[in-house]
Design brief:
- By secondary structure, the protein is an alpha+beta fold.
- It folds into two domains: 3-47, no CATH class; 67-136, no CATH class.
- It has helices at residues 3-9, 17-22, 55-66, 74-80, 132-136, and strands spanning 14-16, 39-42, 45-47, 71-73, 90-94, 104-108, 115-118, 121-124.
- The strands form three sheets. Strands 1-3-2 form a three-stranded antiparallel beta sheet, sandwiched between helices. Strands 4-5-6 form a three-stranded mixed beta sheet.
- Strand 7 (115-118) and strand 8 (121-124) form a beta hairpin.
């Protein structure tokens, strides 16, 4: 399988190991070793280059790991909405019982709150209850009345 074809099937160069296997890459993890051409972003998620991931690639990998229905929340949601926020972790709300790893925080939410599309990513409202800790650590955008 040519790398161009794999990139076409990926989202920003991020692709699941399952998709790679379905495209004929029998062991994608062999290519994710130090010095190899690819890198493992999360369990089951591969970045099709070995350079530093962009913020959008980090978020795409987190959402792919989290699965369908995941919504960006916390500091990342605030930043995506143009608000200042502290924290570097990616915090997602997910339906069901999935778990995160490393700098990926997956929080169960039933139901997952309404979301909006911000730059191609489903994001909770930054002043909603799920984003309150991240938003409250940021300076207010308007002075209180």
């Amino acid at each position: 399988m040519r790398i161009e074809h794999l990139r076409e099937r990926s989202d920003l160069g991020v692709i699941s190991a399952g998709t790679l296997k379905s495209l004929g890459v029998s062991n994608p993890w062999r290519r994710c070793v130090p010095g190899g051409p690819w890198q493992r972003m999360h369990p089951g998620v591969v970045l099709l280059h070995n350079g530093p991931p962009t913020p959008d690639q980090h978020l795409t990998a987190a959402l792919l790991r989290a699965g369908p229905g995941a919504v960006v929340t916390g500091a990342e949601a605030c930043r995506r909405h143009g608000l200042p926020a502290r924290g570097t972790e990616i915090h997602l709300l997910v339906p069901g019982s999935r778990r995160g790893s490393g700098t990926l925080v997956l929080e169960r939410a039933t139901p997952v709150p309404p979301s909006t599309d911000v730059g191609g990513f489903r994001s909770s409202h930054p002043r909603g209850p799920s984003s309150t800790p991240a938003a409250s650590s940021a300076p207010p955008t308007k002075p209180p009345p």
